[in-house]
Amino acid sequence: MRSAQELRALGIRVHAQTADVTRAGDIAKVVQAAEKELGPITILVNNAGIGGFGPVQEKSEEEWDLVLNTNLKSVFLVSRVVAPSMIRRGGGDIINISSLAGKNTFAGGGIYCASKWGLQGLSGCMAEDLRGYGIRVSVICPGSVATDFSGGGAKDPKKVLRAEDVAYAVGMVAVQGPQSFISEVHLRPVRKP
User: Fold this and answer.
1) What pLDDT band is residue 2 in, cutting at 50, 70 and 90?
2) Domain range annotation of the chain
3) What per-residue string of b and e applies to 36-71 under the rule 16 or more CB within 10 Å gives b?
4) Are residues 187 and 166 in contact, defined by beta-carbon separation less than 8 angstroms?
5) Contact predicate 89/38, CB 8 Å
6) Of 112, 119, 130, 170, catalytic
7) Contacts from 35-40 at CB under 8 Å and sequence distance 24+?
8) Does the annotation mark 133 as catalytic?
9) pLDDT by residue (tens digit) across 20-51?
10) Residue 150's pLDDT is what?
């Protein structure tokens, strides 16, 4: 909610509401309240994500469900609620934040990579399903970003992305020309970690 306060201080209209994006009922309430307060959703950024790293044989079914529900099911649920109004209006942008882990594997990343590889497939299919309605579905695949999510201790800030880098990519995708869409962005730091 701190971000909402900061945006309001800049004079930007904001709707902030706590919800569980893995629960269809919560999502319906958030979308309804946001559209009532701000108008139709024209840009949807699906950015919920968690890790859950470690060897698959050491992970529980609950950990699997938590990661897959947060990283993949939530995109399905939120997009499913927002897409019909975009279809009625004849356009919109859905931008899904994935990861380079949706393209590459690494030790200890089984559950996380599965969720992001699934998100890659879901995003591509959504793009094909919705483009005839003027809706652009894009996916952004950042590498390691300097956030609390990345864990693993301090990283050299010159060798990781900043949250602002990902936000810039989202903005770039959202303002592209009306006759095209950027289907996928791979975002890497200039220097290798």
Assistant:
1) confident
2) 1-39, 40-187
3) eeeeebebbbbebbebbbeeeeebeeebbebbbbbb
4) yes
5) no
6) 112
7) 35/85, 37/13, 38/13, 40/85, 40/86, 40/89
8) no
9) 999 999 999 999 999 999 999 999 999 999 99
10) 54
Q: Which CATH superfamily is domain 40-187 in?
A: NAD(P)-binding Rossmann-like Domain (3.40.50.720)
Q: Which of 121, 178, 46, 68 is nearest to 129 (CA)?
A: 121
Residue predicted with more confidence, 68 or 193:
68
Which residue's entry shows tokens 């793009």? 127
Which residue intervals of 39-109 are DSSP H helices? 61-68, 74-89
Side chain identity at residue 157, one-letter code: P
Residue 2, amino acid: R
Strand partners, 73: none
Please return the burial class of 175, using the count of CB atoms within 10 Å of its CB with bins 0-12, 13-18 and 19+: exposed
pLDDT recorded at residue 153: 53
Global confidence as pTM: 0.93
Q: What pLDDT score does 135 carry?
A: 97
